[in-house]
Please model this.
Amino acid sequence: MQAGGLRVHFRPMSDTPIARADYAQLAARVRLWGRELGFQQIGISATSLDTDEAHLSRWLAENRHGEMDYMQRHGTKRTRPSELHAGTLRVISVRMDYDPPQTRNAWEVLGDPTLAYVSRYALGRDYHKLMRSRLQKLADRIAAEIGPFGYRAFVDSAPVMEKALARNAGLGWIGKHTNLINKGSGSWFFLGELFTDLPLPVDAPADEHCGTCTRCIDVCPTQAIVAPNQLDARRCISYLTIELRSSIPLELRPLLGNRIYGCDDCQLVCPWNKFARKSVEPDFATRHGLDEASLIELFAWSEDEFFKRTEGSAIRRIGYECWLRNIAVALGNAPHSAAIVAALSTRSEHASELVREHVQWALARHATHPAIARDQKMQPPVGNIRLPASESNSSCD
Ligand code: B12
Ligand code: SF4
Ligand code: SF4
Model:
C-alpha cells in the first residue's frame, strides 16, 4: 500500500539542547507517550539497512514490483533514511493494531462465494491520517519536553523500508509471508515512523520465529510467496486488486475467489495471529457492513454511491472502475445463478473498456462452466495449529 499526496512535517534539524545522558530517559518517555497516544509499541533503531538494500535491489531487478513504479523511483533514498531526510540519526518506529472487533469471521466470508471478501485492514477508515496525526502529537510532546528538534513523520507515505526499520527497532520479525510479526501480538498492525536527529539509544532487533513453518506459503491462492521472505507482488491478490490499474491476468482471475479488495490468507493461517489483539480504535471499526456484503449488492453501487460509501476509506483510492473490475472477477468465480448473470449483464455495456472486458470474462465463465466455484469453499485450517519447532513449548499447540 502506498498513499499519495501526503502532508509531511518538516522542521530544520537542530542542535539538540539536552545532555547525552538524558537521552535514555527521553527514550523511555517517548515509549510512554506513544502508548498514551494509542500505539501498541514503540521502538528505536539506527538507520543502516544494508542487507535490506540488497534484497530490495534484487526484487526490483526481477520486476517483482510489477507496475508499482514508486518502488523504484527514489534510488537509495528508500534504504538510506538520511538521504530522504538529511540529518536523520534515528528512526522511532510505531505499530498500531487494526483488526476490527465484531467482524464476521473471515473464513466464513471466504467460504461463501456469493459474499465479498474485503481485507481486514480496509474495513474501517483509512489509517494514514489517523496515524500521522498521532505521530505529530508524539513529536509535539517531545518538543514540549526538549524544545525544537528535527523530525519528519511517515506512514506508508514515502520511500521508507517500514518493516525493516521496525524489525531493527525490535517491533517484530519479517515473516516468510513478508509481513512483520510480533511474538505477543501477531501481524494485524500498521507501521509508522518518526525520523529524527535525536541520538536516542537504540533497541535490539527482534529474533525470528517462523522456524520450519510454511503455512503462509502453502495457503497462498496464487503462489505469490515464491520462496521464504520473497513475494512476487505481480501474483499477490493484494497487488492485483489494489495496485494494478490495468487488466487482471486471465490465468490469475479464477484464483482470486471472492477477494475483492486485498487479501489476508497468509496472515489468517499464521499461528502467531492467535496472539493478535483486536483494534481499540473506533476509526477502524467496520463500516457499511463491508465485512459481509454480498457481491451483487456491491456491484449494484452507482459511482456516486461508491464515492459516498467509501469516504474516508482506503478503498476509495482504487476508484470506481477497479472496484467494478474486481467484483466482476469475483462474480465470475461465484456459483452459477440467474441473479448473478443478471447483475453482470447490467454492466456489460459499461463505458469503461476495462470493466466491460472483465464482465464479459465473467459472463463467459457462467455460460461455459456453470458449476464454477461450487466446490471451491475455503475452509479454516484443520487440526491444531502447529508452531515452529523452536516454539513448541508455547501455548499455541
Ligand atoms: C509495496 C507494498 C506492498 C506490495 C508488495 C508487498 C511486499 N512484500 O513488498 C503489495 C501490494 C503486494 C502489498 C500487500 C500488502 N501489504 Co503492503 N506495503 C508495501 C510497502 C509500500 C513497501 C514494502 C516494501 O518495501 N517492499 C519491498 C520488498 C523487497 O520488501 P519485502 O517483500 O518485505 O522483502 C523484505 C524481506 O522479506 C527480505 N527479503 C527479501 N528477499 C529476501 C531473500 C532472502 C533470501 C531473505 C533471507 C530475505 C529477503 O528483505 C526485504 C527488505 O526488508 C509498505 C509500506 C512501506 N513504505 O514500507 C506496505 C506494507 C508493507 N503493507 C502492509 C500491509 C498491511 C499489506 C497487506 C497485508 C494488505 C492486504 N491485506 O492486502 C498485504 C500483505 C501482502 C504480503 N504478503 O506482503 C503493511 C504491513 C504491516 C506489517 N504488519 O507488516 C505496510 C508496512 C504498510 C503500513 N504502513 O502498515 N504491500
Ligand atoms: S496476501 Fe494473499 S495473495 Fe498475497 S501473498 Fe498473502 S496469501 Fe498470497
Ligand atoms: S505462517 Fe508460519 S512461516 Fe508464515 S509467517 Fe507465520 S509463522 Fe512464519
